[in-house]
Each structure stands twice: as C-alpha cells, then as structure tokens.
Amino acid sequence: MVLRLLIGEAPMRRMHLLNVLVAILLVAGLLVPSAATALSSTTIKLWIGNASMSVNGVQKPIDAQGTKPVIVAGRTLVPIRAVIEAFGGSTVWESSTRKVTVTLGKNSLDLWIGKSQASLNGIALAIDAANSAVVPVITNGRTMLPLRFVAESLGIGVQYDATTRMITLMLAPQGPPAPPPGVSWIISTMDSTGDVGKHTSIAVDANGKVHISYIDLTNGKLKYMTNVTGSWVTWIVDSAGDYDTGIAVDANGKCHIVYDGTGGDLKYATNATTASGVSSIVEGGAWSGLMGGDSIALDSYGKAHISYFRASDLDLKYATNGSGTWSTSILKIGGMPAYSASIGMDSDNNIHISYYDDALPDSIKYVTNMSGSWVVTTIATIGMAAGWKTSLAVDSNNKIHISYYDSTNDALKYASNASGIWQTETVDKSSGGVWDASLAVDKANGNQVHMVYSSNSGFKYATKSAGTWQISTIDESWTGRYNSIAIGSSSIHVSYYDGYNLNLKYATKPLL
C-alpha cells in the first residue's frame, strides 16, 4: 500500500505545497514537532547513507563530521540538529541525563539516548511498542532520532522513495479550528498539489478523527489523509485510476479503502495490519470505476464488504474478505448496467445496497440479505437514463435511508423505510443541476438525516427539521463534485472537490 507519507498540505491553493510542507517536517521531521509551527517555506531532503542534504534545493553538508542518515533495527534514524535548525527550531542537550529536547513552534519532544520511551509535551510515549531496540543513538557526536516515531507523534508527513533512498519531510497543515457553536461551515483547502480531490470519501472514527481518501489525478495516485495525530498528514497509498474511492474506519481507528488500481483492477488497502499499510486485488480487470459506485462497509468484526460494478460483464457484484480471503458474488447479471452502488451494514451484520438500474423501466433499487438470501426491491421508477449517484446509510434501528438524483425532474430525492414501508420525497427541485449527493445519518441524535450535493446554485447542505427540508449553501457552484459526508459525535464533516481550482476541500460545522 503506502510507503510514502505525503504532505498534509497547507491550505494554500495551487502551490506545490509539497515542497513547502515537505520541508518543515523532514527527517528532522521527527523533530519536526514543528507541525505546529508552519514554516512552510522550507523544504529539506536527505538520503540514507548520504552526508549531504538539500534545503530549498540548495545542496549542503549535514554537518562537518559527515553524519549520514542510517537504518538501525529496521528503522530510519536521522541527525536532528542540522535539520531542526534549518527549520528555525532548536535542540538542547542535557549531558547529565543524556536527554535531547527538540523544540519547534509550540511542541517540545524529549528523548533519551538508549531509551525506548519519549515524552511529547509532557506525555510519555513508547517509541516503538513492537520493537524496543528502536532508540535514539549518538553517531560521530551527533544525535540520531527515529524518524517515523517523531514524525507521526508530531503530525509530520514523511515521504520515502525506496528506489533512491530519499527522505522528504513535510509539515502537515494544521486542521481548521473547531468552529464555535452557532458558527457556520469552516472550509479549508486540504491538498492543492496538482489536480487533486476527485472521488473523495470521508469517515470519522470513534475518537472524532477524520479519514479521507481521494485521487491525485496529476500523478495517478490514491491518497489518504487523516488528522489522527492532531495535525493533517497525507499518505500516498497506491497508483490508481480516475475512479471512485470508498473509505471506512474500524473500531480501532484503522482505515479500509476500496479503489480502482491501474489496469482496471478492483483493489483494497488497509493499515489495520501494518503501520505502512497493505493492498490487495479484490477482482482483476473489473473496471468497476467506469460505472461508479465502489463502496465499502465494515462489519462488527472489522471485515470488509464491497459493492461494485464489473464493466466487462455488466454485473452488479458484492465482495467480502469475511472468511479471510476475498470472495465475490453476482447481485445483478448483465443486461443493462447497474450504476453507482452504495453499501451499508446494520448492527446484525446484514448487508444493504442501493443502486441505479439502467434496465427499462429505469429505477432506483435496493438489495439486502436480511432474510438469508438476496432480495431486491424497486424503490422508485424514474424514467430512461434518469437516475444517478445513490447514497445509502443505515440508522440505529437498522432502517435504510437513500438519496438519489432524478434527472427527469432535475431533483434530489430521498427514500426511506423508517416508517415500515418505502416512502420517497423531493429534497431539492429548485437549485438546478443537482448532482453527486451524499447522505449520512446521525445515529446518536434521533437518526437525523444529513445530505450534501452539488448544484448550479452552489454546493448545498440539506437536513430535515420539523418535517421540512432545510437547505443552505456550503460553497460556490463550481465546487462540490465528488463529495462525501460523515457524522462525528459533535460535528459534521464533508470532503469535496473544487472543480475550478482543482483542489481537495474539507468543510466542518458543529451538530446543532
């Protein structure tokens, strides 16, 4: 899956922040507690076994002693002083305790030579719980600290190129401040390095941390961004096509992503088993992204369940690794395509999938295995080529909520069986050009339904209050495509694509 932790890029549009951020946290990134001190005008690169470093493109010795980054006990150690000082930070050596204190911005990190414990802002941390041999060392009179631990502790992104053995450290941008009660959407540009942000998917873990998957079209990569460390960090996961991604987070806060790799393979990536992550092929040559709807849900055991469309056979399919290996089954055989499937899992581990069936008469359909076998229900008949982009959520009562686009009437529609029977209603018929709607349910607060969608009159948010859909604008009309919404314990979180600036954006607001 990934080897490269990329810039959690600072909200600066259209700039190669990569370099900027990259810098701040470099190898020294480990020191780079500076994730809080956004000195994003500096870029530093180092190479394993090389005594020189690049600071903003200028090559210079790391120090007069010829100190080089090294790999010890399977972990990269880097010389701290030269790197941190290049960022404008400082290091203090206390010989009596053999402690080095690295300070950059508001963060202070204490490490002790030969010890596997550290302290970040007064909080004790294990450097590597799985390998106690990973400790700070002194080489040629220079302090060498474990890169991965320092970087991840301080929210610093690290990019490693295994071919050239080059390390590029980047300062992850600070996330937007938590919006105070009563304040509207807080919007941030999260990635602006090229054409980025398409096919985004968002999830929130039990600790309120945000996880986002999306496509970097410029470089043909799947990226994953999260603020689990307190600052935003971005990983390059894998090479990927210009197709849907889907993300889900398990009970341990680990991410699971479905996407289309190069060559049309349907792929799955997760960091649940290793910190650097692994990827696998679910089904080769599926070309599922051609019809949209790569969607993923997790059961109570953390196993993945995926709905997708196999373009070569025009089949709607379902895949799971519940048995330990991937198995697939066909839900709809051939004929006309089944577009834009969306999957959800209820508390009994039953599967629920919505999709647009292009076979006459065109319809929105729902399929579930609650009875022990797959049963299909037609939710709405909407006319030829009239439906697209279904989004499904399961509430705390195991009832189903679906949003979909009715292009015949240019309207955003909503369907639910919460009353015991399927009922549909119009959410928005006035904004025009409604597209790409995503839906989420606040299970902790009465199963309140929340939607976001793009339209000719702006990127919109809708929720139902006192029996009426309340609609407001989040962002401009050229934004909002490829959106996704997730509900945390106290906030709404939205990721989406800015089609004018070609950026990934993130919006959040408190739940009322």
Folded structure, characterized:
The protein contains three helices and 43 strands. 52% of the residues are buried. Residues 1-41 and 172-183 have low confidence and may be disordered. Strand 14 and strand 15 (166-171) form a beta hairpin. It folds into two domains: 4-171, Copper amine oxidase-like, N-terminal domain (Copper Amine Oxidase, Chain A, domain 1, 2-Layer Sandwich); 186-510, Neuraminidase (6 Propeller). The strands form ten sheets. Strands 1-20-19-18-17 form a five-stranded antiparallel β-sheet, with no helix packed on it. It has 512 residues and is mainly beta.
Task: List key phrases describing it.
512 residues; mainly beta; Copper Amine Oxidase, Chain A, domain 1; five-stranded antiparallel sheet; 4% helix; 50% strand; disordered N terminus; Copper amine oxidase-like N-terminal domain-containing protein; Mao_N_sf
